[in-house]
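Researcher: We plan to redesign the surface later, but first we want a full-length starting point. C-alpha cells attached.
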C-alpha cells in the first residue's frame, strides 16, 4: 500500500469545506510573515513524512491509522452539516468522533512545537538553578534535545493514547452547532480545536479539556462550527432559561433586570437539541479570534479578507506563533 508523502495534520476533507471551486482553492494567512496567498487544500496544513518514523531498525508510519480514523469521522461530521445539528444519539458514533477530536488535538505541528518549547523552558530553568560548573555540565547533557525521530516517538505516544485519555472529556461535553453566513464566514487555523474559558478574563489562562466552564470550538465549514461546552456551564443557561420563562408568565415587569434575556432561550434550545445557533457578528469575531490565537502559523479561509488576523498579530506580536506554556 502506497503511503502519501505529504501528510496532513488538519484533514483534507475538512479543509475542502473551506475551499472554492473544483480545485479546492482557499486563502491562507501566514501569521509569521503577515502575508496572505491562495493555495490548494492539498498543499497546506501538511508536511513531508510528518507521521513517518523509524523503530527498531525499520520504518513505520501513523498515516494509515489517521486515515482510517478520518474515514470513520468524515460522514458523521458531514451529517452534522446536512442535518444542521450536532446531535449524535448513537453511542459508537459519538465514541468515534470523540476519538477523532482527541487525536486531532494532539496531531498538529503546534503540539510538537509546544512540547519542544516546554522541554527547552524546563531545561533553562534547571540550568539556572545549577550550583556549580560541574552540575551545570551534567544538567546541560541531561536536557539536550533528543534527535528528531525520538521527538516524533515521544509525541506519537501521546497521540496514540489520546482516544483513551482525552476522548472522555469530549464525550462529557454538551455539543451544539453555531452558524454564520458567507458574508461573515468562520475561518480555520492549523490547530483548529480551540478552547475558551467562559469565566476567565485572562486570555490563554486556565485552558484545559477538564476545566470548569471550558468551551471547545471546532470549525466545520465557512458557515457552521461545532461548540462543545462544559456541562456545568450548559446547565447554567438551561436554568436561566427556566427562570426567564417563569418571569415572562408571572412577573414580566422584572425582565428588564436580565440583560440579553432574548438570547438565553435560543442558546438553551441549541444546547438541548444540538441544532444550529445563529451567531451575532461579535460571536463570529470571537470564534475566529480563537482560531487565530491557537494557530501555530497558518489560518485558512474561504474569503481573502484577513483583516482580523492581520490586526491581531500586529497588535500582539506574540500571536505570530502558537500558544506556549509559561513556567511559574
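Model: Full-length starting sequence:
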Amino acid at each position: 500500500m502506497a503511503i502519501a508523502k505529504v501528510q496532513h495534520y488538519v484533514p483534507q476533507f475538512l479543509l475542502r469545506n473551506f475551499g472554492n471551486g473544483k480545485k479546492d482553492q482557499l486563502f491562507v494567512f501566514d501569521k509569521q510573515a503577515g502575508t496572505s496567498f491562495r493555495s490548494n487544500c492539498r498543499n497546506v496544513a501538511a508536511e513531508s513524512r510528518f507521521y513517518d518514523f523509524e523503530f527498531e531498525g525499520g520504518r513505520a508510519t501513523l498515516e494509515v491509522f489517521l486515515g482510517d480514523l478520518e474515514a470513520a469521522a468524515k460522514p458523521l461530521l458531514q451529517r452534522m452539516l446536512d442535518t444542521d445539528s450536532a446531535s449524535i444519539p448513537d453511542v459508537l458514533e459519538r465514541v468515534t468522533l470523540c476519538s477523532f477530536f482527541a487525536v486531532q488535538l494532539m496531531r498538529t505541528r503546534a503540539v510538537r512545537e509546544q512540547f519542544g518549547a516546554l522541554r527547552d523552558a524546563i531545561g533553562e530553568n534547571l540550568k539556572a538553578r545549577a550550583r556549580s560548573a560541574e552540575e551545570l555540565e551534567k544538567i546541560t547533557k541531561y536536557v539536550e534535545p533528543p534527535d528528531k525521530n525520538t521527538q516524533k516517538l515521544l509525541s506519537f505516544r501521546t497521540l496514540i493514547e489520546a482516544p483513551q485519555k482525552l476522548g472522555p472529556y469530549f464525550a462529557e461535553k454538551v455539543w451544539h452547532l453555531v452558524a454564520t453566513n458567507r458574508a461573515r464566514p468562520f475561518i480555520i487555523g492549523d490547530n483548529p480545536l480551540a478552547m475558551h474559558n467562559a469565566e476567565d478574563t485572562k486570555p490563554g489562562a486556565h485552558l484545559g479539556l477538564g476545566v470548569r466552564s471550558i468551551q471547545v470550538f471546532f470549525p466545520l465549514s465557512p458557515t457552521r462550527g461545532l461548540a462543545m461546552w462544559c456541562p456545568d456551564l450548559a446547565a447554567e443557561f438551561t436554568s436561566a432559561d427556566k427562570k426567564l420563562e417563569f418571569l415572562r408568565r408571572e412577573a414580566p415587569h422584572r425582565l428588564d433586570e436580565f440583560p440579553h434575556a432574548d438570547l438565553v432561550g435560543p442558546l438553551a434550545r441549541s444546547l438541548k437539541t444540538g441544532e444550529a445557533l445563529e451567531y451575532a457578528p461579535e460571536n463570529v469575531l470571537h470564534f475566529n479570534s480563537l482560531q487565530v490565537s491557537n494557530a501555530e502559523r497558518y489560518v485558512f479561509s474561504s474569503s481573502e479578507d484577513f483583516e482580523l488576523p492581520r490586526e491581531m498579530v500586529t497588535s500582539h506580536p506574540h500571536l505570530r506563533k502558537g500558544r506556549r506554556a509559561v513556567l511559574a
